[in-house]
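Structure first, sequence second, as always.
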């Protein structure tokens, strides 16, 4: 279920249609973004699917029309109102300045610009107000946070507002699709080979295993994935938050889960926390004893919270379990949600309109 955008004053379909480029349109996130643009009836005048420069004959279907995927080139961004980007950080660094120069608003799923002080890092349910100063035609980059950060801050923000946050301890259980199309293919192949009695290669994805190492690390330090959560969370919450993070890749196709402990500034009973979370935007709370799982929430745009309970170790402490579809709320839906909020704002004035 994709929830309605909170700020939509009139329906999104009634707005001026835009020229929309999707960079990385053939990837897991890119395909999900194209699907959402169609499902949400986003006002698209022209969809331009862009991918790598290899010779290509592939097409994407959008609103029943077969559209050729084009190799990315500077000319493609001329006249673009909106660029949705998910082709890796290097491609964002190369192409988004070109799109900005052409006047496009770019919503970037990569880590390239997230910690740039000039670039807002947005989760609409948490800090969507920062979009108020942005309008189409301005030439701006807006960053989508890391997938694990997004679902964490959606759950943390209502608790922060109600009880204050002293510290956060989190372990993630991240699915294979978080590493892209190639990783899913290698994982599927490895799983098959192991089931058939084959030997495990040293660099094999974690089929029948779990791997507490996502990205690079140096001995005694966090991994790059953990560093993203450590840096992005305070930027989005707009206050420093002491955190311990361990990111773990697990043999699940889609959906990230997180075991979270928080120490709040003020005393909190778990029943009150459950109440606060159940009223917060973008969250589905699972009361009772049956927790949400990644497989159950795949295909769903909400952040699911279950197993809310008191901490046994922290004063004013809570523990809970957070699950979301990493390709949707963790990437494509958060990006399209930002785009919807921009379109819904009265400053929407597409290039050439
Ligand atoms: N997967 C997730 O859950 C998730 C969540 C949040 C953020 N992200 C971020 O989103 C980005 C994409 O992730 P993904 O999972 O969709 O990856 P993916 O499935 O591997 O897709 C990568 C996309 O990038 C394109 N690409 C590769 N090299 C290119 C180049 N030189 N020029 C232009 N396009 C190029 C690919 O096109 P070809 O068809 O030409 O190869 C494909 O469309 C990554 O930066 C990732 O960190 C992913």
């Amino acid at each position: 279920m994709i929830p309605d955008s909170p700020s939509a004053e009139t329906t999104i379909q009634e707005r001026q249609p835009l020229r929309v480029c999707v960079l990385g349109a053939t990837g897991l996130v890119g395909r999900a973004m194209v699907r959402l643009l169609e499902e949400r009836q986003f006002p698209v005048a022209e969809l331009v699917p862009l991918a790598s420069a290899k010779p290509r004959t592939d097409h994407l279907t959008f609103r029943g029309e077969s559209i050729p995927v084009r190799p990315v080139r500077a000319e493609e961004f001329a006249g673009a109102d909106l660029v949705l980007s998910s082709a890796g950080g290097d491609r964002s660094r190369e192409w988004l300045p070109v799109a900005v120069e052409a006047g496009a608003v770019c919503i970037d799923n990569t880590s390239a610009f997230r910690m740039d002080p000039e670039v807002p890092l947005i989760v609409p349910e948490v800090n969507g107000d920062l979009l108020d100063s942005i309008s189409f035609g301005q030439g701006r980059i807006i960053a989508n946070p890391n997938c694990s950060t997004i679902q964490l801050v959606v759950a943390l923000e209502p608790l922060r507002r109600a009880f204050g946050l002293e510290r956060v301890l989190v372990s993630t259980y991240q699915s294979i699709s978080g590493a892209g199309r190639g990783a899913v293919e290698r994982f599927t192949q490895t799983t098959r080979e192991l089931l058939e009695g084959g030997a495990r290669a040293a660099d094999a994805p974690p089929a029948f295993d779990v791997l507490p190492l996502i990205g690079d690390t140096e001995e005694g330090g966090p991994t790059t994935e953990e560093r993203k959560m450590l840096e992005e969370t305070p930027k989005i919450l707009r206050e420093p938050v002491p955190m311990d993070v361990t990111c773990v890749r697990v043999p699940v196709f889609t959906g990230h889960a997180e075991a979270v402990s928080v120490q709040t500034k003020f005393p909190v009973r778990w029943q009150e926390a459950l109440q606060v979370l159940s009223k917060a935007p973008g969250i589905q709370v699972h009361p009772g004893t049956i927790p949400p799982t990644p497989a159950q929430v795949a295909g769903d745009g909400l952040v699911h919270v279950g197993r809310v309970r008191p901490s046994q170790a922290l004063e004013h402490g809570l523990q809970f379990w957070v699950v979301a579809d990493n390709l949707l709320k963790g990437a494509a839906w958060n990006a399209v949600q930002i785009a919807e909020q921009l379109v819904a704002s009265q400053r929407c004035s597409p290039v050439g309109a």
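Margin note: The two ends are 33 Å apart (CA to CA).
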